[in-house]
Specification:
35% strand; Trna Endonuclease, Chain: A, domain 1; 5 strands; alpha+beta
Length: 115
């Protein structure tokens, strides 16, 4: 299984987790020339949630949650602004979450970072 397939598998598990917990998934792999957001969902309380999914397949890789660098956080925040602007959602509540997937286990951190 190549890196892209592993990433897709992690995202699939994250989507299942979100759906099982009452989220409505709006978009997967929202892309522009500036970057990508893995998942855009709406939380049960109506908050728009931008989700970065990180996966690891071995302990050598470390905790996947630590792979969301400050540079990646900045990219996600910029992409979130673009998404909100394009869909005329400016002013609507939103947050950035991170989901780590390791050996099928899901770690979800709501409000993982602020930019």
């Amino acid at each position: 299984m190549n890196t892209r397939d592993k990433g897709r598998r992690g995202e699939d598990l994250a989507v299942k987790y979100l759906l099982d917990n009452g989220y409505a998934v709006q978009t997967r792999n929202f892309r522009t020339r500036y970057g990508e957001i893995d998942i855009v969902a709406v939380a049960p309380d109506g908050t728009i949630v931008f989700v970065e999914v990180k996966s690891a397949t071995s302990a050598v890789c470390g905790n996947p949650l630590y792979k969301v660098t400050p540079a990646k956080q900045k990219t996600i925040a910029g992409m979130a602004k673009r998404y909100m602007y394009d869909r005329k959602l400016i002013g609507h509540a939103c947050r950035m979450d991170v989901i780590g997937v390791y050996r099928g286990k899901i770690d979800h951190i709501p409000n993982a970072f602020f930019v």
